[in-house]
Amino acid sequence: MGSDKHSAGLLPTLRMDRVRTILTDTYPYPHEHSRHAIIAVVVGCLFFISSDNMHTLVEKLDNNIKWWSMYACLLGFFYFFSSPFIGKTIKPSYSNFSRWYIAWILVAALYHLPSFQSMGVDMRMNLSLFLSIYISSILFLLVFHIIFLGLWYLGLISRVAGRRPELLTILQNCAVISIACCVFYSHCGNRAMLRQRPLERKTFNWFSLWKKQERNTLLAKFLRMNELKDQVCSSWFAPVGSASDYPLLSKWVIYGELACSGSCPGSSDEISPIYSLWATFIGLYIANYVVQRSTGWALTHPLPVEEYEKLKKTQMKPDFLDMVPWYSGTSADLFKTVFDLLVSVTVFVGRFDMRMMQAAMSRVHEGDKQDDLFYDHLSEKQDFWFDFMADTGDGGNSSYTVARLLAQPSIRLARDDSVLTLPRGDLLLIGGDLAYPNPSAFTYERRLFCPFEYALQPPPWYKSEHIAANKPELPDGVSELKEYNGPQCFLIPGNHDWFDGLNTFMRYICHKSWLGGWFMPQKKSYFALQLPKRWWVFGLDLSLHADIDVYQFKFFSELIKNKVGENDSVIIMTHEPHWLLDWYWNSVSGENVSHLIRDYLKGRCKLRIAGDLHHYMRHSSVPSEGPAHVQHLLVNGCGGAFLHPTHVFSNFNKFYGNTYECKAAYPSFDDSSRIALGNILKFRKKNWQFDFIGGIIYFILVFSMFPQCKLDHILQEDSFSGHLRSFFGTVWDAFVYVLEHSFVSLAGVLLLLIAAFSFVPSKLSLKKRTIIGILHLFAHLSSALILMLLLELGLETCVRHKLLATSGYHSLYQWYRSVESEHFPDPTGLRARIEQWTFGLYPACIKYLMSAFDVPEVMAVTRSNICKEGMESLSRGGAVIYYASVFLYFWVFSTPVVSLVFGSYLYICINWLHLHFDEAFSSLRIANYKSFTRFHITRDGDLEVFTLAVDKVPKEWKLDPDWDGEPKHPQQLSHRRKYPSKWSASAGQQDPVNTVRVVDHFVIRKTEPESLSSNGAVSSNGSVNH
User: 708 pLDDT exceeds 60?
Assistant: First the structure.
């Protein structure tokens, strides 16, 4: 019992995520994972890389700087291409495709280059051996699985065997087996025996290294690791014996090559150690598979069921979605977003408006009597608290961070020498953009409802698939809305919610009753709330027009006339902050909203709150002689979406003719400017799916420039400066050729120029947009031409040194067939029989698989033919093969560069020109810097405002032990619980409850009769800052 308790307490304290990633089974059967074998192979590789190999490498370094610089460039490009995928979960996705792609192209390039023999690695032999063993393993295991399924179909084995294996799992296991055999061959070879000492077997005892008398030689043996390697190869992995010892298998094995001093008469009779190792691995796989599928649960779950379920529960983690990849070239969601936006703009804007239908469907058509738009059930509460957030529904971690804070019964903050306690709001206001990138059932459920339901669970009787036909659907025992004392939620739609014409918003907000544990009585997309102490909230729906419609204006204007008193205070909630966006775009929007505030409220609008910009900023009016139509302007769009900059809006100071000053900004202007630097350093790491588009664009720009046949003037220069001068002169000539003679490349240049011009914000003049667009285009075109010339120079160098364009197509397969019989003797004709039984499929698969690694050879041979005989000598199929092989390498070289150029463009624009505030920060996908605003209507009628923020959002979560340990009652509402949220941060010090802080605090005084001027406008801002 003691040990059980100790282990149970120890597990949560350890950082077990990496261990669980390796040891936890994704599939029901452990044998379907090859991760353990991969680890074993890696350890073996590290062991067999001996100091002797490294010493030989140092001794045999080629003095020709040309080859080593080529290696450095090649490996550098491949590293920068693969760097975004390092450490990501292996799964069938674009990321996994890129890993296999980079491995294929890199190996195909390296095995054609010299100097690898100095490291003791025969790249060509290992590659061809790997492919041969890989095809053989796949063929053998496929036959085995077919036979095994046939036995299951006949009822001869357990029903558990009926589960088909994953094809990807078979391929992974075959790859691991092949790698293991190649590692063994690289260091031990395929030696059959030592003829000079046929009866003597040299023995070696590993444990002799640790004998007392030999401890002094331990370091010496380590420095002579190759001797230890030879002893291990000859003792541990010695051949299993002669084929004559196994008469039944003599015709079904491959033999080892002779390894003797001097000539070796006769042929080998020893079974190949490579074959023995391969057969051992295949036998283990088959035995493991048969045992697992025959016994089922017992071996796959060695723990008792109760302990297994308990362990599984402790390892549970929330399945949150990542931040939306806005620059993804492979995301179907983004293409759907663009399509929905085009449809919304062309179909709905000006033609059909859901707000018009809502007005037509209202039960009562007379202004302030519309009970589905006006709610006064909160007006009699005392000491009222409510919250505001906006722009949630992006990354799961960031959205849950804010939702977890909103759900806490109270937030305790250390302030000076006291503790500040902020109770949970009775009302939650959400200011639009509920899910990104487009409104759909999937995005609303996974990006909006999922985090909120984890933070505050809905009631037990709630069914997510049910529609609320008659809202409000109150809990049992509550007869009217004002009697319900749990948290409530009111929401307005943002521009992203309107991309489908408000359809998803109506289904999930207006026709459902619960957002997690927050009750939603709302029936329409806009509303008016009467709060205590003569405070009001008007939630306006701006649609895609950035303004309210005539029916909405009529409702609020009549409400102001009939309900809002002269001394009342109104909070206007919109999705877009007109004051900042109009200043930035040099435009005027929201005329109806302005008319409502200036001519109807007449100074009673104390505060405007909005989202859309994903940062926090507050501007307060400067006291002046003129009227202040709005005292405070507050933007807080940090509810979960990516971060927006603040320094771009640092110069804003005018709105409605009044002067405003910035009282708070989060993040600060300096931090915002520093964050923008990430576009240069992190653009590709954050937006690796941008490769798909960027690489294709660069290839189109230089398509007409392949091949470059006249490069002698560059290679024949004597000095480095001469090389550079000739190189850039050739780049300029290529640029002129694109403009004067090419068709495909010129078309690509013109299209990219149009795109670059259109990408520049329209707030600039036509002249400035043209200049910026041309400079942007020139940066990309120059980079593409330089990369094209570097690739051509590399090919030309290899051709001149006869490393490429020497063997033609299928060079690797032809070479392997020529040396196969020497290294892997087959006196019984096993290969010929396999070829006959497979109708030639076996050698054909090996041949064409090896041909995939001859891409550089194909490219060089075709390039040489074009340079000698002209492009007309190529057939259409030959041209397709040539340009496809060029694209495979050029795409790898270009993707890091196109991201660097584009990221640098965004950085220059955002920090120097204050342009692209949306594009430059959406690329960074920053989940940190999240906040919400908590309001407190005091007993005196003042409005106290706290903005709470979390600088760093946790990325790892665990089951909250307090939530799990708290007793649960079947009908208890979650807001009554002390610990309402299911997940807490894995590192306790990073939990949002512990890291939240106040970034802004101010008080808006209630309106007194004497504070109104004769024209009804407030003459001072009536606020106190803290």
Answer: yes
The dihedral region occupied by 514, where left means phi > 0, alpha psi between -120 and 50, and beta the remainder, is beta
Among 856, 888, 921, give the residue marking a domain's end: 921
Q: What are phi and psi of 102, to 5 degrees?
A: -70, -35
Same domain, yes or no, for 881 and 816?
yes
Is residue 562 within 8 A of residue 368, CB to CB? The reply is yes
Token couple for 388:
């505001």
Q: What is the sign of the dihedral through the CA atoms of 597, 598, 600 and 604? A: positive
Whether the per-residue pLDDT at 571 is higher than 80: the answer is yes
Q: How far apart, in whole angstroms, are the C-alpha atoms of residue 134 and residue 281?
A: 13
**C-alpha–C-alpha distance, residues 673 and 678, integer Å:** 10
Note whether residue 333 is domain-resident: no
d(CA 772, CA 910) in angstroms, rounded, equals: 13
In a shared domain, residues 694 and 789: yes
DSSP state of 258: P
Dihedral sign from CA coordinates of 242, 243, 248, 252: positive
Residues shown for the chain: 1026
Q: H-helix or E-strand containing 101?
A: helix 94-110
Q: How far apart are CA 374 and CA 601, in angstroms?
A: 17
Q: What is the pTM of this model?
A: 0.80
Q: With respect to residue 522, please indicate whether it lies within any of the assigned structural domains.
A: yes
Nearest to 371 by CA among 563, 567, 572, 602: 563
Determine contact, residues 408/450, Cβ cutoff 8 Å. Answer: no
Per-residue pLDDT at 11 exceeds 50 = no
> How many domains, in total, are found in the chain?
2
Same domain, 868 and 788: yes
- The dihedrals phi and psi of 1018, each to the nearest 5 degrees, come to -75, 135
Most confident region among 270-274, 424-428, 959-963 by mean pLDDT: 424-428
Statement: residue 12 has pLDDT above 50: no
Last residue of a domain, one of 873, 905, 921: 921
Cα angle 927, 932, 935 (rounded to 5 degrees) comes to: 175
396 burial type by CB count under 10 A (0-12 exposed, 13-18 middle, 19+ buried): buried
95-99, 872-876, 1016-1020, range with greatest mean pLDDT: 872-876
CA nearest to 691, candidates 328, 337, 326:
328
Q: What share of the chain is helix, strand, coil (3-state, %, to 5)?
A: 55, 10, 35
What's the burial of 305, exposed, middle or buried (CB within 10 Å: 0-12/13-18/19+)?
exposed
Give yes or no for residue 200 having a pLDDT over 80: no
3-state secondary structure 170-210: HHHHHHHHHHHHHHHHHHHCCECCCCCCCCCCCCCCHHHHH
Those residues with Cβ within 8 angstroms of residue 1015's Cβ, 6 or more apart along the chain or in another chain: 602, 627
- In 10 A of CB 244, how many CB atoms? 9
Segment 391-396 shows an average pLDDT of: 91
DSSP track, 898-946: HHHHHHHHHHHIIIII---HHHHHHTTT----EEEEEEEE-TTS-EEEE
Q: Has residue 211 been placed in a domain?
A: no
Instruction: Report which residue type is found at 638.
Output: C
Look at residue 93 and tell me whether its pLDDT is greater than 70.
no
Q: Are residues 690 and 728 in the same domain?
A: yes
Cβ contacts of 330 within 8 Å, gap of 6 or more:
94, 689, 692
Q: How confident is the model at residue 135 (pLDDT cuts 50, 70, 90)?
A: confident
Residue with tokens 């009699």, as numbered in its chain: 380
pLDDT, residue 393, reads 87
3-state secondary structure of 275: helix
Q: How many CA atoms lie within 13 A of 49 on its CB side?
A: 8
What is d(CA 614, CA 637) in angstroms, rounded to the nearest whole number?
4
43-62 average pLDDT score: 47
CATH number for the domain harbouring residue 643: 3.60.21.10
> Which of 325-339, 424-438, 700-714 is the least confident region?
325-339
